[in-house]
Structure formats: C-alpha cells, structure tokens
Amino acid sequence: MKETKDIKTSELKKNAQVVFNKFIRDRDKECQCISCGASVQQAGHFYSAGKHNSMRFNEDNVHGQCIKCNYYEHGNLIKYRIGLIEKIGLSRVERLDYLASDKSASKNDRFFYLEILEKYGVKK
Questions:
Q1: φ, ψ (nearest 5 deg) of residue 63
Q2: Is the Cβ–Cβ distance between 61 and 84 less than 8 Å?
Q3: pLDDT in tens, 21-43
Q4: Do residues 55 and 100 make contact, with C-beta atoms less than 8 angstroms apart?
C-alpha cells in the first residue's frame, strides 16, 4: 500500500466516500429504503454531496436507499424527507437544513479525508 503522503487528495476523497458509503449500507442493512421502503442497495444523500460538500460525510444526511429512488428518482427527496423525520426526528432534520444552508463551509483537505478513512474504514 502507498504511503498516505503519496496518495493524491482526489484519491483520498474517493476512498473516503467508498468506506463511508459502505458504513451507511452496513448501518442500514436491516432497514428499508428511507424513501420508498424497498431493500437498501445504496447510500443516498438527502443534501447532495456535489452541491453540499460539507454534508458529504454527515451520518444524519446519508441513509440507505434503493437504486430506483437514489439514482433514477434523484433521491426521491419529498418521501426521503418524510422518512428522515420519522427516523431521526424533526429537530435533527432542521439542523441538517441549517448546516446545508451554511455557505461558509470550507473545502475539505487531505487530512479531513484521512480522518474519514480512519473513522469509517481503515483499521490500524
């Protein structure tokens, strides 16, 4: 395995996303799709990771979804929000809304991705 100093930040980000998504799928494997109730196949973001980078690794923002809702229905967000309120409660959903609206969130760096890898995937 490469030394972490030799791994590009973009590769660290990709690897961090893989281990985080696996964590979410494992966490929610006994649950149903948060939007429609089908079996969980993917980790779906309520606030998209592309538009809301600061929400990418927020456990309250990411839940098990089926491929249809996550991919073909672009998250099925109306039903996702209903399921989210049922699962984590209105106050935590409102906290997500607040965090997603914060435009001051900084860009993640390689050290942040290394922390994600350590927390969710890479065991020493």
A1: -140, 165
A2: no
A3: 999 999 999 999 999 999 999 99
A4: yes
Q: Which two tokens stand for residue 3?
A: 């030394």
Residue pair 42/21 in contact by the 8 Å Cβ criterion: yes
Neighbouring residues of 62: CB distance < 8 A, sequence distance ≥ 6: 20, 21, 24, 43, 44, 45, 46
Residue closest to 86 by CA, chosen among 37, 119, 124: 37
Identify the DSSP state of 9. Answer: H
The answer to whether 62 and 44 have CB atoms below 8 angstroms apart is yes
104 pLDDT higher than 50: yes
SS3 2: coil
Cβ pair 8, 43 in contact under 8 A = no
Question: 42, 65 in Cβ contact below 8 A?
Answer: yes
In the three-class reduction of DSSP (H, G, I as helix; E, B as strand; rest coil), residue 100 is classed as helix
pTM given for the model = 0.90
